[in-house]
Amino acid sequence: MSGAGDASQSPRPDRLLAIRNSIARGERSVREVVTDAIDRMTSGNPRTNALTQILADEAMVRAAELDAARSSLGPAATLPPLFGVPMIIKDNICTRLGRTTCASRMLENYRSPFDATSVRRLVEDGAVIVAKSNLDEFAMGGSGEHSAFGPTRNPWDLSRVPGGSSSGSAAAVAAGYAPAALGSDTGGSIRQPAALCGLTGIKPTYGRVSRLGLVAFASSLDQVGPMAHAAADVAPVLEAIMGHDPGDSTSLDADARQGSELLTTPIVGLRLGVPSQARSSANHASVSRVLEQTIATFRAAGATIVDIDLPHADAGIAAYYIIAPAEASSNLARYDGVRFGRRAAVTQGEPLEAMYTRSRTEGFGSEVQRRIMLGTHVLSSGYYDAYYLTALRARRLIKRDFDRAFSRDPGMPGVHAVLMPATPSPAFALGEKVSDPLSLYLEDVYTVGVNLAGLPGLSFPAGFDTSGTARLPIGMQLVGPALGEWTLLRIAHQFQSLTDHHEQRP
């Protein structure tokens, strides 16, 4: 255990809270903060390829507006929670600034006429949007290698992947370009890259954050969420973006701003469930070691560790890789070169179908094409019942397992959160799994079940792998009942008050 004290009291100067507080105290202007961020992005991005666009001019205009507003309000004014904080947005979330490309040739020139609800709420809380981040094309991938604009590299070791699909968001924050970023999570796409890049990232309960303006991959699984260095920095971003949105029919009408003040509450007496499947499938020595060290830290903090069983966890990968591609094949059917997306050159006299085929072949990368074909197959006549409906039944069983773990009924475990690894191994080498899709899909083994169940999941840095030539972060994951985000952030914050893994930098 590495004693660091309460990180929320004296955060590093590159942390979100430190930046916001320095602006509030008048020690730095927004212009100075944003200029520093632009300089770091401009000099660092050629190495990491974490960003698709740096919105320097737009960010400086916004900074000037905020500085003018700060001056007119006076030194005693209460500022919005994210006032002047640079933020990076995953490039599958719509912004009026710049383009929204989904890291795909299909949308490389698309400009959104509106901001996603999550982006609009960030701006309303004072944030400055400084860049759009790279990702696996249309958020389909777990390594950050499937972008039309080239792979993202992990700042801890540029020869390794940062995880995906929110690869650029995680790599950018880890590299110090900005203190926080938005990602999206369909099967682990916030939690996995956060784990591999040494960050804290949360996938909220399905419907907790509006999906309006998030380009759809798998609509019953997608969710927008933030990542930053520490739970204390994730909390104000989550508070800003969550809440009911009448523009999203899946948006929950639940209390939104209710949590940051709870983070400092001790976790004495909380019950954390550790699935037997987590211990048996954590076959990487460093991941197993960090899991046991994390359990010991939580015990020292006063939590009770409970052994639990999630008997249908092994069905998660199979169910996810039927349901998600099925929904993707439907959502991406609109990109035909006529209604939406890149249009191939038309040869006079050729059938319209030929133009459709050429537009989609030119516009979509190999991984997106693979998933569209898989999804179309499992929805086709003769296979729908055998594959898709069977996957839906498995999904219900996976959710039931979690519900039983959280149940307070007599004889049930009654845990407040489930603890398990976020990934089965530390970051692997670029190119190592590109030719073996199944091996890459298995990297999602700990995360997909959370999306299938619609529950909140949080990844937090818990240790390091030092077995090779590089020092690589290892993340653990907390899963909570629906609307349990603040409990997860509280547990992670208490862990971070006893350790300093979240304060380490590449």
The number of distinct β-strands equals 11
Helix content: 25-40%
Tell me the fraction of residues in β-strands, as a range: 5-15%
CATH-scheme architecture of the domain at 16-261: Alpha-Beta Complex
Give the CA-CA distance, first to last residue.
20 Å
Within the CATH hierarchy, at the fold level, what is the topology of the domain at 16-261? Answer: Amidase signature (AS) enzymes
Q: Label the structural class.
A: alpha/beta
Alpha plus pi helix count = 16
Shape: globular
The major beta sheet can be summarized as:
11 strands, mixed
Q: Any idea what the radius of gyration is?
A: 22 Å
- Model regions low in confidence, pLDDT < 50 over at least 5 residues: 1-9
Query: What is the average per-residue confidence, as pLDDT, rounded to a whole number?
Result: 94
The side-by-side strand order for the widest beta sheet comes to 1-3-2-4-6-5-10-11-9-7-8
Q: Give me the strand/helix succession.
A: HHEHEHEHEHEEHEHHEHHHHEHHEEH
* CATH class call of the domain at 16-261: Alpha Beta
For CATH, the homologous superfamily of the domain at 16-261 is named as Amidase signature (AS) domain
